Structures are given as C-alpha cells and as structure tokens.
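Second attempt. The first submission of Fpg/Nei family DNA glycosylase had a stray character pasted in from the spreadsheet, which I only caught after the job came back as garbage. Lesson logged: always re-copy from the clean sequence file. Corrected sequence (292 aa) follows.
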Amino acid sequence: MPELPEVESLAEFLRERAVGQVVQAVDVVAFSALKTVSPPITALGGLTVTTVARHGKFLDLDCDGIHLIFHLARGGWLRWRDDLSGAKPVRPGKGPLALRVRFAPDPLGVAPGFELTEAGTQKRLAVYVATSPGDVPGIAALGPDPLTPSFTVETLTSIVEGKRTQIKGLLRDQKVIAGIGNAYSDEVLHAAKMSPFKVASTLTPEQISSLYDAIVVTLKEAIERARGIAAKDLKAEKKSGLRVHGRTGEKCEVCGDTVREVSFADSSLQYCPTCQTGGKPLADRRMSKLLK
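This time the job returned cleanly.
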C-alpha cells in the first residue's frame, strides 16, 4: 500500500509533469472506484491543473478549483504515460485499469496523461471529484500530518495520553496521525526501539520524544530516497529501503538478530526482538502478548 512517502513522491512527480496541463478527458473504467456524482467527472474537461497536493495518503489535483482526488488503497498505483494520443479506447472489464486521465495534445500531437490501476480482487481504490478537499470524508477526518511544523512532541504527547491502545495500531489510525500505514509503522517502531504492542498511554516522556524523532526522521528519509525516482520505480525503492517490514527471517541491519513476524487475518507486522522487545519473541496470534 502506498503510504505518506510514496504519495508525497507521486505528488512531486505530478507537480513536475501535470501542472499546467489541460485536461482533455477523464475515462472511468472501474465505475465502482468513483465515489462522487457532483460535480460530474466530465466537469474536469477543459480545466487546467494548477496545483497538486497530498492529504495523508490522498492525492489531490486542483483543476481550476475542481479537485480530482484519489486514494490508491492497498492495490492501487499511478502509471504515467508520456503519450496517450494513440491509446485504445478504454472499456470496463476485469483488467487492472480503473481510470485514465488524458491531457490535451501539444502542437506536435503528443498527449501525456496517467492511469490509475488496481491489482487484486479487493477493489478499494477511491476517486472523488469535489469543489473542496474537505468534502471528501476521509480527508475531513484526517489527524495531523507528521511532516507539518505544527506536529510537535507536544502534539504526539496529547495523542498518546490516556490511549489504552497498542502503539502499532495508533500509528496506523489515519484519524490520529495522517499518512502512516503498516510498513512505515513497523519502520518507525524499529527506529524507536519500541514493541509494536506497547500500550500508548504507558509511554514515558523520553519514549514519546524518541518515537517523535523516529516518525519524522523515518518519513523524511524515505521521501528523500524516493526524490527524483520515476513513479513506476517507487514501489521497488520503497521495498529496498525498509529495514524490518517485509523482511521476515532476514538479519536485522542494526543488531544481527532475525526479523520476526506476527500475522493477522489480512495483514502482518515485522519487528526485531533484540531491538524492540528485550529479546523476547511476540506470540504469532491475535491479541498477542509477550511470551513468558
């Protein structure tokens, strides 16, 4: 699933290529992905992309005041096309293509654009057309963005205060902190040397400060690694930069211990026992507790 660093990189990628382009048409292939009816998606035709923004994991193309907003969810991705002038008309089907945005051709007839695709059977990619980003329920409910100046140690302290919730789940809750998902919550907790099952309200001021630093540094480093990389290569870059997530059975780069996993119904987490849980493995079952 694309998370804050990848979505921010996609936003930068689109700022370089899409801003100033005139929307010729938006072709919807997977109608289930379109979550709004007013304004209609046809309203985007003829408008110019003026800015590209990120809200948590949402991408937002402002087209003369009408916003094309999308959330890539678990299996979605953005595929840039340098020239769509010769592309075949899209038809609803079982393929991965969900939506195509075509920009007006230049004097040489070259018409760039991009496509949204979604792999897998769980179709969760969501597309919105709105007059304001706040009209999208998921954006309106977002917690603070961890890379804004207003997100401070005091902000994080107020977030964890009184929360009888495991810190892993709290970091992933978009209504609490915007943009962190399963992968980067693993990476943040590894950097902070903290168990994913530690209860948030039990964190000491020193641990909160350490967690804050881990959040900001981990996300900024991931964005920096991805800067300038083409959209098609961002997935591979993300995977190569992860220290524990997706590395079950491999050696921890920090201490050399074996990275372990806890599996759930539809996801899993990875961690290093030596770095994070005092050398004790976590039970691999729901509601796991430290093995005694």
